[in-house]
Design a protein that fits this description.
single chain; alpha+beta; Fic-like fold; about 50% helix; about 10% strand
């Protein structure tokens, strides 16, 4: 084992290092775990120590100077990881399963009041659900389990036994972590929620109501389109109504099952609700029909435990001062990674985003938040951030094909779905939130404002049914303010040349003037 501490590397798991260096922190712990034949999902950025005296970061590496090098023992690398890299619950649990409680007992015996000893002690008991034969601490200042400079934290709950402030953003049953990147902190500082209110000030209430109704249908259709479905308007409207009610009812298994019933529509699945069989996302081999999974869903036997953890964490975050977008990403992406239902998971995942943003007061005044439309605009990025979770984990799931061309999972996988890093997903969701607030909602408000003005002009000028007026405006909008000869003959032969010329001129005046 000592070789790991003294051997310099130039690459690790296919990632070249910026210069030769020693693996430290989680990279070293992962190496120790792999000794036991167990692989782990690696953090996006690992740490090395070099013999030079330059401290810097690259996309995949934190590079530390030789004076930062931990001692040649596992406990020093545990402390280094917590100090400089934050908390990776999955690697820590796999490490504890590999080593047992010996490193924890060694740290407590050596430095019983050290903050790192106490943090490792707390994390061991929390993750392993095991109380060690160590007496409760009676003195010492309370320290936070999560360093708020490195990762986002929730409301603290004191653990008097360890004299620790448990500010983990989740429960033992489900606790993704989010790094405090400049990008996320910049989004939070923008107060995008306040921008919605400021953007609606002085707007006509009826216009806001009509815009909200339009965005509701737009978001519903976009959510189906993301799944490659284009349902009849009635089904899209029914799902739109469900989105419009988001935030009003508490999120429970029963409520999610009710929503699955709405989103699936009349053609029910053979098995609705929580899956009783395994599942995967992907294709089948053309010749053998063997599964070719891109993502393997959580084991069906683990679903009650995972969903309880997810819903308990949802309650914890909503009752704290946690940022609503971070909370929405935590629960919504956690849900879709678990994939608890046989169908409808993607649309319910996006519904949960609506639900949490509404319930935590991020969206106000009845304005629907068409986040699915923003996701549809970024569909390739969306697929990439889903794959960034699945690609590392699918290799850790041992499975074999079944007679009905499904998968049979052979190993324990529950921790893959409750302990993971969610930073990329949060950055993506915040980009969608920004686009929704700064572009999609204002553009729809602006369009409807112009639409109302144009409708009034046509009604004062001609006598046409409302449906004809609506069609005329939409055709003009499609054709840059002009009505084609074919469409005029087929739909509007009663309009004279002079009337049409006046309408086209007014349309271009209203719609183009504000676009310049």
């Amino acid at each position: 084992m000592s070789n790991y501490f003294s051997q310099q590397v130039t690459a690790f798991h296919g990632k070249p290092t910026p210069e030769p260096g020693f693996l430290v922190g989680y990279a070293l712990l992962a190496t120790i775990i792999e000794e036991n034949g167990v692989n782990v999902p690696l953090p996006d950025r690992l740490a090395i120590v070099t013999e030079k005296h330059q401290r810097y970061n690259t996309e995949h590496w934190q590079v530390f100077t030789i004076r930062h090098k931990p001692d040649n023992d596992l406990t020093s690398h545990l402390a280094f990881a917590l100090k400089y890299e934050g908390i990776d619950l999955y690697i820590l649990k796999m490490f504890f399963e590999h080593t047992g409680n010996e490193p924890v007992l060694h740290m407590i015996k050596k430095e019983p009041t050290s903050q790192y000893s106490r943090r490792v002690w707390f994390l061991y008991e929390w993750l392993m659900d095991e109380v060690l034969d160590i007496p409760d601490l009676k003195t010492g200042t309370y320290v936070e389990i999560v360093n708020p400079k490195l990762q986002f934290t929730s409301t603290s709950i004191n653990s008097t036994r360890h004299r620790i402030k448990n500010n983990l953003p989740g429960t033992k049953g489900f606790c993704p972590m989010i790094k405090k990147t400049d990008k996320i902190q910049s989004f939070i500082a923008k107060d995008l929620s306040g921008s919605i209110e400021r953007g609606l000030e002085g707007r006509d209430k009826d216009l806001i109501r009509r815009t909200a109704a339009f965005l509701l249908l737009k978001d519903s259709k976009a959510s189906f389109a993301i799944e490659g479905e284009y349902p009849p308007n009635l089904r899209a409207r029914n799902w739109g109504k469900a989105i419009g009610q988001s935030g009003k009812k508490q999120l429970t298994i029963e409520e999610l099952e009710r929503l699955q019933d709405v989103v699936i529509g009349a053609k029910k699945l053979k098995s609705m609700g929580l899956r009783t069989q395994e599942g995967f996302i992907g294709e089948h081999d053309r010749d053998t029909f063997s599964p070719l999974p891109d993502h393997i869903s959580a084991k069906s036997k683990d679903l009650p435990t995972l969903m309880k953890g997810l819903l308990d964490t949802n309650k914890l975050l909503q009752e704290s001062s946690y940022d609503p977008v971070l909370a929405a990403a935590t629960i919504a992406f956690g849900f879709v990674f678990i994939h608890p239902f046989s169908d409808g998971n993607g649309r319910l995942h996006r519904y949960i985003i609506h639900h949490i943003l509404t319930r935590m007061g991020y969206t106000k005044r009845g304005m629907i938040f068409p986040v699915s439309a923003a996701i549809l605009n970024r569909i390739d990025e969306y697929q990439s951030i889903l794959e960034s979770y699945s690609s590392q984990r699918i290799e850790l799931v041992e499975w074999e094909p079944t007679a009905d061309h499904n998968v049979k999972i052979l190993n324990e996988t529950i921790d893959l779905y409750r302990y993971f890093d969610l930073t990329k997903q949060v950055e993506f969701l915040y980009e969608c939130v920004e686009e929704t607030i700064e572009k999609i909602i204002p553009e729809e408000l602006d369009y409807l404002e112009k639409y109302v003005r144009m409708t009034k002009y046509i009604n004062n000028y001609l006598s046409l049914p409302d449906t004809k007026v609506d069609l005329l405006i939409k055709l003009l909008n499609q054709n840059n303010g002009s009505l084609s000869k074919n469409k005029r003959q087929r739909e509007f032969d009663e309009i004279t040349d002079e009337e049409l010329s006046s309408i086209e001129e007014r349309f271009q005046s209203i719609f183009e003037k504000n676009n310049k």
